[in-house]
Amino acid sequence: MEVIKISPRGYCYGVVDALQIVRKTAKDPQQPRPIYIIGQIVHNRHAIEELTALGVITLDGPDRASILEQVKEGTVIFTAHGVSPLVKQRARERGLNCIDATCPDVTVTHDLVRDLVAKGYYILYIGKKGHPEPEGVLGEVPGHISLIENEADVDALALTPQQQEKLAISTQTTLSQWDTRRVIAYIKEKYPHAEVHIDICAATQSRQEAVVAQAKGADLTIVVGDPRSNNTNRLVQVSEELAGVPAVRIEDISQLKTEWLQGKKRVAVTAGASTPSQLTREVIRFLEQYRPD
Questions:
Q1: Alpha carbon 7 to chain centroid, angstroms
Q2: pLDDT in tens, the chain (293 residues)
Q3: Could you list the active site residues?
Q4: Which of 126, 151, 158, 283 has CA 20 to 30 A from 47's CA?
Q5: Nearest to residue 267, comparing CAs of 234, 239, 293, 227?
Q6: Cβ contact 186:233 at 8 Å
Q7: Which domains does the chain have, with CATH numbers?
Q8: Would you say 64 and 58 are in contact if contact means Cβ atoms under 8 Å apart?
Q9: CA distances in angstroms from 240 to 10, 212, 244, listed in the order given
């Protein structure tokens, strides 16, 4: 079996920075205890388990504000996905020690939407409903922004004449660039004057483009990553829809089923931007040594 090791794959710099921030905080005796992460620092179970072993408590819930309600004292770390100004304000009001691990690319989007609204724009933000990144961005400019997931959401918009006058489009950083451009094109049909800002991060784009270019001709693509990771799920979609290669997503080697490999001569392997490298290496080693019965 030929194993195609798609590159780039795995951790992006935003994830690496966020994990380093948590590790440094956990090892610093001067940081007030307990140490909590408000939500999952990155969407990967294995990464979270590593931090738990360092004594860091990961809290989860329907949104960041409600998660914060669980914390009475100590240190709170905001995840790579970013949080709204309201969450930061409530944390400070409680006297909590606050550490921000927001990905710099996400911070750019926060700054952008604030700047655009200050200039009189109404924002159409393309993102995934229920994901923490849009939650934080929408919280920057409530009342001046709408979340758009697909064309149906565009049709459902009820914009006032004033809102329609100055429109700007922004995006979540971890979307499929092809899906995003399709939705943007649909918006532009209805609102040709809308100003477009595509904020999909370079790491997300490069990993998607690598799958399209390098998985072509493979019999199967294996994507290693957490089911809650949006960029991981988009890699599965990109393989199937753009590279024309069937794809499966697994968290780690324990989920790899050998029946998937029957009759396969070329298997491509990639990983989401929040997937620890050792998990992907284990999958690659297994495939390189695999011999069908």
A1: 19
A2: 899 999 999 999 999 999 999 999 999 999 999 999 999 999 999 999 999 999 999 999 999 999 999 999 999 999 999 999 999 999 999 999 999 999 999 999 999 999 999 999 999 999 999 999 999 999 999 999 999 999 999 999 999 999 999 999 999 999 999 999 999 999 999 999 999 999 999 999 999 999 999 999 999 999 999 999 999 999 999 999 999 999 999 999 999 999 999 999 999 999 999 999 999 999 999 999 998 76
A3: 133
A4: 126
A5: 239
A6: no
A7: 2-11+203-289 (3.40.1010.20), 13-103 (3.40.50.11270), 105-196 (3.40.1010.20)
A8: no
A9: 19, 9, 5
The two three-digit tokens of residue 229, written as one number: 């990771």
C-beta of residue 214 within 8 angstroms of C-beta of residue 198: no
Distances (CA, A) of 221 to 50, 142, 217: 27, 40, 10
Chain position carrying tokens 């995840």: 79
